[in-house]
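Protocol step 4 of 6: structure prediction from sequence.
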Amino acid sequence: MQQRVLHLGDISGTSKSMIEVARSKGLDWVLRDVPAGRGSNPAFIALRRLRDLVVVRSLRPKPEILHINYGVSGYYGWVRKNVVLHLHGTDVRSDMQSRFLGPVVRHSIKTADVVLYSTPDLGPAVRELRPDAQWFPAPLPTAATDMLPRHPDRSTRIFFASRWDDSKGAPELLILAKAIQGQYPEAVLVGLDWGNHANAARAAGLQLLPLMSTDDFRQEIANADIVIGQVAFGALGLSDLEAMAQARPLVARFTLEEDYGSPAPLFNTDKAPAMTLVERILSDPAGAAEIALAGRAWALEHHGSHTLQARLEGIYQQLLA
């Protein structure tokens, strides 16, 4: 069955990955950006979004399915049929509790035909409003699954791949960085110049890199002897998954393994202190590499874009049946 699908907005490349695979199969799936919802005068944002809503409502031919990314944009689907609302994280953890945005997110969840959420930790809050909501894992972009050649420094290189925000566990990551520097002064610690704790990371001696292209970011991951991911929630972010796909030893927090049916091969801060895991990796590089290779296989099995696109296509078919 041919499906004319419009994806509104894109979070962490999820829709781009799905559309890339779909279009390679000849499916009519397209992506349309939505106006930014932050960083400007609220009245201006509201007017800009209202204008865009009118444009989307008048699109012809009309899409058979409207796939909306991010709960705050859910109003695009109000009083429409065949609406898929895809929740991604902050829209559930923060926006749904907001005095102004919360009613929009909650109403959108209640009225959409299908509700998806991208990480298992969002499930309890979402299912309170929609017991039929489905977990849909974040897909790895096809380019992220190709192993990149390494260009390692002579010194041990440790890459903190998350932004320096509380939502990623920045305070705990700063403590870890200082502990690594104290025990391994020859190690090169690198992070992103991004997040409200970035200045603290810089003051702690990390080399902070400006925001870069996706290709350059993947190369930074590939070059790292250890990748440090998020440690705040029990869900793997896209940068964590990309580290696994590059077969790099990953230190991150992952508490929701049962949702996958098999444990994820990574150095899990939910099982041991982060510094202990770093010591284990550096003391046994061969063993760490073996775990990292198993992590790559696991990430491709559960987050491969072709597998997840086929699943999404099936969700659409059921909606149109």
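Step 5 (inspection) to follow. The CA atoms of residues 160 and 228 lie 5 Å apart.
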